[in-house]
Amino acid sequence: MRKTALRFGFALAVLTFAQPSLGYDGPVEKKTFALPSYTTVGGRTIKDVKIGWESYGKLNEARSNAILITHFFSGNSHAAGKYKPEEKVAGYWDPIIGAGKPIDTDKYFVISSDTLVNLNTKSPTTVTTGPASINPDTGKPYGMSFPVVGIRDFVNVQKALLDSLGIKKLHAVVGASMGALQAMEWAAGYPDMVERVVPVIGDAETNAWLIGWLNVWAAPIMLDPNWNNGDYYGRPEPTRGLAEALKIVSLHAQGTEWANKTFARKWAEEGKNPLDGFANKYLIEATLEKGAAARAAASDANSFLYLVKANQLFIADNGGSLEEIAKKIKARMLLLPGVGDHIFPPANSQRVRDAMKAAGKDVEYAEIDGPNGHLNGVIHIAKQGEAIRAFLAK
Amino acid sequence: MRKTALRFGFALAVLTFAQPSLGYDGPVEKKTFALPSYTTVGGRTIKDVKIGWESYGKLNEARSNAILITHFFSGNSHAAGKYKPEEKVAGYWDPIIGAGKPIDTDKYFVISSDTLVNLNTKSPTTVTTGPASINPDTGKPYGMSFPVVGIRDFVNVQKALLDSLGIKKLHAVVGASMGALQAMEWAAGYPDMVERVVPVIGDAETNAWLIGWLNVWAAPIMLDPNWNNGDYYGRPEPTRGLAEALKIVSLHAQGTEWANKTFARKWAEEGKNPLDGFANKYLIEATLEKGAAARAAASDANSFLYLVKANQLFIADNGGSLEEIAKKIKARMLLLPGVGDHIFPPANSQRVRDAMKAAGKDVEYAEIDGPNGHLNGVIHIAKQGEAIRAFLAK
């Protein structure tokens, strides 16, 4: 029981949810894509941009079989497979990506890239450029002087990566959560390049409700005196504030059913009744706190703030309304919201579906069931695996 | 538009939502109830306990017409009427309490009391005993040495107040949110004393999901270095942490529809595009922050932590299961959840209804519609005013 609880608590932390790989595609290699310079949507130039990427399967001669996988807020490009066969945990969507799986690497060249300002700056398998990177002009970390970037910037850097591989059409873009926002940005921003799009647990814009919650996620970092306006590199870092921020995300991304079935009103420690003092906690509290602290040790606080900003800024292709966004999109769309999602509730995907239908576009919709709310889109993606397979074959 | 937005943002802050009083019952007086000593459920003794209370209407000779109103997390006993006729804002449930209104003060003696560890320690119309009070044994504020108290302790002190007035039966207990928890505690803990109970936007226990969220609410206070383990009286107070905590509560208590219709993706200031830097915010962020800062100035951080603890500890009459709780209750029950409530969703009240029905108890259920989520139970209570009137007459 305790172990299960902890494992779930680490949901976003270590992504232990993915099932063991069924098909074997050989070890995965993390590669680095470098751009000498990139100019942001906001008009700022970043030198020496580097992002990591992985691929599974082979690009065909016509270069027409590429599927781009875009990752979620706290994730990176490790979507499938293992770096070494002896690893216990595979990439987060391994149940649907691989030989014979719904995103079939025997047919498709699947490519997945780290975003700019990726959270996992201390992970050896993440390559990113962001506030924790050294500014070549000063020789010091950017901190909060790094340019504000948005989802379109993530997409533009991905496009440069695809350009470098000679890929001019995408068979599909598939992503969960912030990955769905990137997928939607691809479909609306580069409509002639994207044939299919699968936004999983996402939306076409960040609404006011979520803008407010993203503010709540970020605030603890700025409350931590170690944050020091983002100038903390080489000093004690705002680890407490970052852990608190990650705790909020972990809970928000989970499901009510998960919480109540896993923890009920259990105490964190036997014999330590929460009635007897503030040090005595409930199991769900202790589990969330432990998971978040572990996660914070591998993450960068400023990068968290930049990711919050990027998500707040999101509206697909800077479209004025959902109707205008829908008009721009040429891709067939498969929307996959998660049941009980508190971040991007199914109603959000239903609005996108309705706008697409109203614009005469080809759109399908199905829900991913499970007790894990938003994370249903990561943990239980295989439940819609066959829907994804069929959609990709159309 | 801006004004409306701000007014909504201050929802929990100043309770400006109540409509002007229709009936006139004369000015309301804040009275003080004092207990020389009170022993908590946890077995600790608090000396010189004082709480404020108000009443509307007259107690009949049989002392059989009393209705107790219990307040929500950030509220106090000012449920109806005005202290002075010239005041602009009446008590929070004024639309349903007064002469001729659903809780009719021509018929009922309506009594409302401040809780222990009330949040509004700096409000001149709140009387409470809690961590900000002077410990008579030391002559200094208790801080975190104040005993942990729970919803049952709030109820027990209310019972002592009712005892002092010779009230042995309650025609009804009616409360919203934390007030609903007190109402449920009354019904399960003192079943022979409560004839009717109206839990509005509440539950019979705090589930794991909400225990986790209450932890999230509290955390920013402890991140603020001014908190100093609760020892801040007479020094700079943890106002930033407290404001952040109140900001989370304000958003959590609101509705998705409210946020999206009121703010959409509007910027806080014209010409200041959030893309251009971290100082440039969206309107919903600025509104929540402004409201929370104003609210923090009148509140006490330690009291917030004690209220969080009291809410986490809640399970009606320490009942083992919902079935056992339902068995204990003798009161007729009218459950009134709010549509789109993110704190106590209607599903929680439906569980209580089903358990009451299974136990063969008399239970009614209706939802309070509106765009304001949890706050529908405060702002839009009048929508179920006639249901309340009819229920009280049964």
Describe the secondary structure blueprint for this structure:
The structure is a homodimer of 394-residue chains.
Chain A: H1 2-9, H2 11-14, E1 31-39, E2 45-56, E3 66-70, E4 97-98, E5 103-104, E6 109-113, E7 134-135, E8 140-141, H3 151-164, E9 172-176, H4 178-189, E10 196-200, H5 208-223, H6 239-252, H7 256-263, H8 283-296, H9 301-312, H10 322-328, E11 332-335, H11 346-358, E12 363-365, H12 376-379, H13 385-393
Parallel strand pairs in A: 3-6, 3-9, 4-5, 9-10, 10-11, 11-12
Antiparallel strand pairs in A: 1-2, 2-6, 7-8
Structural account:
2 copies of one chain form a homodimer. Chain A has 394 residues and is α/β, with parallel strands linked by helices. Chain A has one domain: Rossmann fold (3-Layer(aba) Sandwich), CATH 3.40.50. Helices cover 34% and strands 14% of the residues of chain A. An 8-stranded mixed β-sheet of chain A has the order 1-2-6-3-9-10-11-12, with helices on both faces. In chain A, strands 4-5 form a two-stranded parallel sheet. A two-stranded antiparallel ribbon of chain A has the order 7-8. In chain A, strand 7 and strand 8 form a beta hairpin. In chain A, helix 3 (151-164) packs across helix 4, helix 5 (208-223) runs antiparallel to helix 9 and helix 6 packs across helix 8. The longest helix of chain A has 16 residues, at 208-223. Chain A is globular. The termini of chain A are far apart. Mean pLDDT of chain A is 94; it is low at 1-23.
